[in-house]
Structure formats: structure tokens, C-alpha cells
Amino acid sequence: MSLYKQSELFAFLDSIGRKPNKRLSQNFLIDGNILNKIVDAASLSSGDLVIEIGPGPGVLTEALIAKGIHVIAIEKDRLYAEQLKRLDKGNLLRVIQEDVLEVDLVPLLEGRKAKIISNLPYHLTSPIMGKILPLYDKIETIVVMLQKEVAVRMSSSPGSKNYGSFSIFTQFYSDTEYLFSVSPNCFFPRPKVTSGVIRCIPKKTTSSFDKEAFFTFIKRVFSKRRKMLLTILKEEVDKEALICELQKLGHSEKCRPEDVSIEDFVHIYKSFY
């Protein structure tokens, strides 16, 4: 069975009496070329371990197993989870019928490093990425498809209008690259938005400061992104000291949050908090 073919996907859905649930972001890939590009982007080798989040009917799962990949598929929908087992060949598939946000991923790895490849449920992108990116020492590569607007934000650099708190969170934990866009025509049912595929290569983070407090600080700063950083922080830090630090980092005292790199934000945070 080739589930990326629309006729075969329709036949499967009819056989189980199921239609995609838009509320759960169930838009299934029906383009073989895009499927291959996603798989290729992860540089897989036979025997690799992949965690797939929200596999649905198993379009991506099927392609991974065909390459000899060990797959841990985490699917909240009970019927889809049960049906995924039909794809297993050679004991390569383990299905977890659960909400990924409720699953402790580390014990599933059994000491191995994994790659994460997924067409993420778009309405859950932020909490899912918030869960998996801090596992940088357990994950080799993350290749995910999500709403293009979000993918662009996650991979944007300082100076861009799309650079913000989610960019900093993503790139604090990984080297992030926007790979390619995916047309709505590549899905059934056809979504209203264009999708994008990004690749995150986790990087070792040795900083010992309170990261949760740091990201809370970043969100607060970017909630006023149109203002100068000096104005945003004037009630919290000494003005002259902040001006001095900004100048050391090569920034004007009139700089705004979108002008400041992740490394410089870390320096500012450690200097004043």
C-alpha cells in the first residue's frame, strides 16, 4: 500500500469508516515527492530510531519502515493507533496510543539517541516543540512539517520582522534551517495555509542559568517589540549600566528586541538578573 497516493488513502479511510478531523489538524500528505524530501532531510540509515508524532493513517510511518527504520509512533487517536500496527514489518514499529504531551519520551529511547520526523498537528506546534527541543542530548535530528508562518518564525535571524521569542527558544537549543515550503494541494483535505519543513540539529547547551526564567524574560521583552530595549527594561535595570553593556555588544542604545542575538540576550540576562 502507498498511502501517499490519494486513491489508496481514500480506500483506507473508507475501510475504517473515518474522515479527517480538521479540529485535530488531520491533513494527510498525498504527495510522494514531498514525502521523500522529508525522509531524505533526516539523513536516515537502516536501524535508526525515529519518533513520529501524530502519524494518523501512517503515510510517513510506511515510508520509514520501508527503509528499515525503527519507529516509535505516538498517536492520540485510538482507531488510527490500532490501524498503524498493520504496517509493521520485521518488528520495526512500536505504537504508543497517547497524547504526546503526556508521554515521557526519555524512557522510550532505552539509552539510544533518536531522530524526530513528523507532520506535526499544527494547533499543538508550540507545546510539542517546547517539549522536544530541551531533549537536545537525547535527539540527533528533528525534521518537522508545520505551518509555514510558524516555521519561518522559528528559523528567522535577528533583524527580521519574524524574529521573536519562539525564534530564540528554538535556536537556543538547535541549529535551525528552513528547508522548503509545501503547497496546500499536497494534502487531503486541503488546508487553508501553506506548510513549511524545518530541520533542527540539537546543540549541546552547557549554560547553567535558569532557562525557564530566561525564556519568560524573552517573552516579556518581545511583547513590547516595537519599543527600544532600554525603554522596556528601564524599571528593572540601571539605565547607564545597560547602555554600557549594549555598547560592549555592538548595539546602539536605541536597539529593539529584534536587533539582539540570542547570545547577546543571554549575556544581558546573566548581567542583570
Q: What's the helix count?
A: 12
Topology as H/E string? Answer: HEHEHEHEHEHEHHEEEHHHH
Helix fraction by DSSP (H/I, runs of at least 4) = 25-40%
- Major pleated sheet: 7 strands, mixed
Mean pLDDT: 95
Contiguous low-pLDDT stretches (5 residues minimum) are: none
Query: How large, in whole angstroms, is the Cα Rg?
Result: 21 Å
Basic shape: elongated
User: Termini distance?
Assistant: 57 Å
Structural class: alpha/beta
Number of strands: 9
Strand content: 15-25%
State the strand order across the main sheet.
Answer: 4-3-2-5-6-9-7
Question: Top keywords for this entry?
Answer:
single chain; seven-stranded mixed beta sheet; 273 residues; 9 strands; alpha/beta; two-stranded antiparallel ribbon
